[in-house]
Design brief:
Blueprint lengths: L1 E7 L10 E2 L1 H13 L19 E4 L3 H11 L4 E4 L18 E2 H13 L10 H22 L1 E6 L1 H13 L3 E4 L8 E6 L1
Parallel strand pairs: 1-6, 3-4, 3-6
Antiparallel strand pairs: 1-8, 2-5, 7-8
Length: 187
Amino acid sequence: MKQIFLIRHARPLVDRRGWFSKTQAQQFLQNYQVAEVEEILSSQLPPVLPPVKKVYCSPLPRAMATAHMLFGPQAELVVDPVFREFESSIWGLPMGRFPLSWWQVPSRVLWFLGLHQKDMESFRKAKVRAALAAEQLAQEAGVKGVAVLVAHGFVNEFIKRALVKKQWKVLVNGGRSYVGVTQLGRE
């Protein structure tokens, strides 16, 4: 059976607590993009990781650091921007201070609807990119029997959806939790 493992990065070392102005929420997103991640404890290690020498990875630091923690420095990281997270920015009037989710949720919903895409990749293009990423992983699994990706919540979700459309079966759904592993298989 061919297998694909989609792994979300470890928890970034950024503080989400408190109340944020629009400017502070935008700064949070910038900090999140370059954040290091907390160390993965042995109790957090996914139980179903295959022994591999080649790991596909997003170019963002949190994904690369997670890949090194999970697979060791000897693993060959194939870093490709096709695996980067779906882009995000903050929408809203620059008034008041609110919890971070107050800024992020409407911004993401408007982006999904195609109403908030200025100066960034559209949702439609991001889904196409996820489908291309899924094809790349499926080709690797077809040749090697297994493909492993360490990336991000949204891109992993849409890669999973693209694979399911191509008759891959979800064997383990790790969801969007940090260091969550989704395992897919196909005969």
